[in-house]
Amino acid sequence: MWNTALLFACALLVAALPARAAERLVVATEGTYPPFSYHDQEGRLTGFDVDIAEALCRAMQAECELVAAPWDSLLDGLEQGRFDLVVASMAATPERQARADFSDHYYRTHSMFAGPAGRYPRVSPDDLAGLRLATGADTIQAAFLQRRYPRSRILLARDQQEALRWLEQGQADLVLSDTINLLSFLQSPAGVAFDYAGEPLADNMLQSEARIAVAKGRRTLLARVNRAIVTIRLNGSYDQINRRYIPFSLY
């Protein structure tokens, strides 16, 4: 009888203990890159990257705070410990790999030019010599243009949305960006006079795999992110998010 009473008392004590708090992670994205990350009409941060980040956090059983930050500050924030993860359609270039570790890919895509509809059917460096080519600074597209299009005038914007505004306003002849980001623009009222120019660009400099950035040395967190990517692929969350924003598979 004494043992039973003792066990019952211990059980009550354990039940009274507070539940272990969920791990808290700060996840950064850009916020100006539709349909991947942007603010809706109510000012809420949303998009493919945002929903993927939330699904990954659920799979890791972590409580996440999602924040938007300028593109050129994302890796700075990771290195300074302000962010735990960056989910921002980021390719793992050698320069970035020197500053952060990267997960397995979570989507693939291509880069293309966009410009006035029908005006630029060919987009080789010779075809675009002398033209104003815009893209976001510190992107793989920027490095590609600077290396491959030396006879064009390269305009580097704060982000891809500013580059597209330059196109709208006639300050740039063409914009180079991710095909899905361009699709969002071309389907908007602002993009009605524009279209893709030429074909998707096949070049080693334009890595087409988006990955999640983790601070250097956080190997356990990186492994958990990779497992979570597999989990959301298997449980159907990934496909649901994909269909919400894009009419074909990105994986």
TrEMBL record:
Domain of life: Bacteria
Signal peptide: 1-21
InterPro entries linked: Solute-binding_3/MltF_N
Domain annotation Solute-binding protein family 3/N-terminal: ranges: 24-249
Keyword list, A-Z: Signal
Record-stated family: Belongs to the bacterial solute-binding protein 3 family.
Protein name (record): ABC transporter substrate-binding protein
